[in-house]
Structures are given as C-alpha cells and as structure tokens.
Amino acid sequence: MENTLFDFIAKYIPLSEAEKSAVVALDIFRTFKKGAVLLKEGQYSSEGYFVLKGCVRIFYIVDGEEKTTGFYTEMEGITPNCVVSKQPSKYFISCIEDSIVTVSNLGMEVEIFEKFPKFEKLCRILSEQLLAKTQISFDEFKTSSPEQRYLNLLQNRPDLLQRVPQHQLASYLGITPQSLSRLRTRIMEKKI
Amino acid sequence: MENTLFDFIAKYIPLSEAEKSAVVALDIFRTFKKGAVLLKEGQYSSEGYFVLKGCVRIFYIVDGEEKTTGFYTEMEGITPNCVVSKQPSKYFISCIEDSIVTVSNLGMEVEIFEKFPKFEKLCRILSEQLLAKTQISFDEFKTSSPEQRYLNLLQNRPDLLQRVPQHQLASYLGITPQSLSRLRTRIMEKKI
DNA sequence: GCTTCTTCTTAACTTAAGTGAACGACTTTT
DNA sequence: AAAAGTCGTTCACTTAAGTTAAGAAGAAGC
Measured between CB atoms, which of B58, B69, B81 is closest to A132? Predict the structure, then answer.
C-alpha cells in the first residue's frame, strides 16, 4: 500500500528513507466501502485525498439532481476546492467502488513542508502538471461536441465506461442520460 | 511596473528587498503591441507569462478555424501546457490589446528556487489556487447551458464582453458566433 | 418471494445549436 | 478612391440536445 504511493512519488522526486518514514508516520491510509462519503456539500474541510485503489467521484446536487463533474481512480489526487478557498464545500465526494485512499490535512502539509522542503517541490510539480492536464481537458471539452467528447473518453479513459454508471457519465459529459443513450446508439449504427 | 507585480505577490507571501532585487535582476518585463504573438503552435517553449496590463488569449486552429479557449487579463498568469509537458505547443498565445507581460523561463525558475526557496512556495500556492479556480470553472461549464454560461460571464467577467470580439467570445463559450448572436437577442427580448 | 428503487432505454415533442449563405458597417490595404 | 477583408447579424434549414413520460431489467431491501 505504502509502496504504491512511493513508486508514484519516485516518478517525480527521489525520497530518502527518512522522508518515507515521515510519510508513514502520518498514518494517512484509509479504506472505504462503496458508497462511502468523503466530503459533503456545506462542510468545511482541510482534507486532501489521493486514490490508491478504487474510484471516487465529485458531484454537485443542483435542483435535486446529481451533477457528476469528476472521476478519480488509481494514482489520482484531489485537493477539494473548499480546502484552498477555506469556504464550505459546494460538492460531494463519494466512493463508487470499495477504495483505498490517503487522507491528509493542511496541518500535516505545513508540518512536513517545514521538515522536508522537498515535499513542497513535489506538490508544486504535481499541482502544475494537474493544472496543465485540467486546462487541456477543459479546452477539448469546449471545442468538441457531446459525441466527440464521448469518443474522446472512449479513447482516453475506456476503463471509466466500464466502472461508472451511465447517468453519472452523462453529466460528466455535460449532457442528459437520455442524450447519452441516443448518442451511443447513433454511434453503433454508424459503425455497422 | 515592478510594484504592480510585488503588490500581487504580497497577497500570498512577504518578499524581502533582496528577493525583490533578485526578481528585478531577471529583467522579465516586456511590452507587446496588439496582435503580437507570444507562442505559436508547434513551437517548443519554456516560457511562462504573467499579464500586468492588457489582455492575452489562447487559441487553437482546428480545420482552419480559430478556437479561443482562454483570456488572461491583469494579474493573471499562464504556464503554457507545452512548458510542463515538454511537447510542441498545441495552441497560440497572442495579445488582444497592447500589453505589459512578464516573460520568464524554466532556467530562471530553477535558479531562483534554489536561491530563494520561498518562490517555490509561492508557485505551489498560485498553482493550487489556479487549479482550484480552473476546476470550478470547468464544473460550471459542464453543468450549464450556453445561455447560462453567457449570463455567468456577464456576472463574473463583464469586462471581457467589452474588450473582446464576439466571435472569440463565442468559441470561449463553446458555441458558434451565430449562436451567440441569437442567444443575445433572445436574452434581450426576455428582459424587455 | 415480493416490493421498491435504480438504472437504462425508447419514444414523441419542444427547443436550441450547427450550417451555409447573405448583407451591411467598418477597417485595412493598395 | 476602390478593393479586399473583418465582424456582427439575420435567415432558412438541418441536426441534435432537453423534456416528459413510460416501460423493462436488475439490484437492494423487507
């Protein structure tokens, strides 16, 4: 479990044994059952998450309707907006599958950044990379039709289509479940 | 000019005079005429930008058509995707107005991070905050219609509607110029 | 075992966005 | 001054997404 995390970190910066021990000492590994809620709308939180195994989603509730805006799977991290803005959360985070997730909080960050400034560099790099990825995704979303977006997803994250319910995928694509269903049959017919 | 930048930084971390001098020594302030191109598609670049005055846009050219995905005005920074990924740029960056922009490169970053680790913290904070903002914008985009997106823009960045041509705004909203024009008259008629 | 809920699909209808073409108002170029 | 290009708008037409409703299949709860 720890090693999965350290292998991931090793891709960005080397960690000494002392630094690894410091991480282990934080005792941040948690397991959650499918359906478990990590963060609720309205809640103040200073917790960040990193998915080691399983799948977690972010969703809003607008007019009683769930709007899913993000899925996070193996080796993806989440720093909820409310942690950065110090405002109550506008969304929920919950597990779609049984999951193993690291849960850290701001206090831990401050502490470990002081002891090992290297982690500040790690977080800068991860944050910059995620920002770049998010902006590209946003650009692709803006410049393509729902159908193209579905085809992109099929290309880039085919696993999601398997592990995520259709109606959650639909709002992730910015459309209704009915449109997604139609769009899928439309694509099928073209292929035949 | 320098002070505009330092006032901005002061909102996040305090800078000593030595640190300010180090920034000034980098000689990163540039002025550009309207229409000037900062980055071209296909180009490798390690330059980051920060807009002190004016307005800069990011746009793709897809099938000969410009697709504008971002506008950056006073006190907004850009680290182009290609700088992070070390790949040729997929998009252009150009000035919509006469602008004053800081232009830094990766070498400078490495250098100044070593001399003054405080800047690494600054970049982490800025990057985390921008990431949070970008994700919220993306969520709003996904969960609203073109008309709602236009109304949101009217609320959140009314200045853009003044300083940016309609057809660039349209692709920024993910629609055609014709749709934007229609949508605007639709809204007008509702108000009357 | 039965009910209830959730999920997905289908259908009919409404609404809005994409497309292609055209026009006038301006700007820029020559 | 004339020509060419840009920009915003409008129109007619096509295409697709939203909406409302209904039904089938499966999962979860009692």
Answer: B81
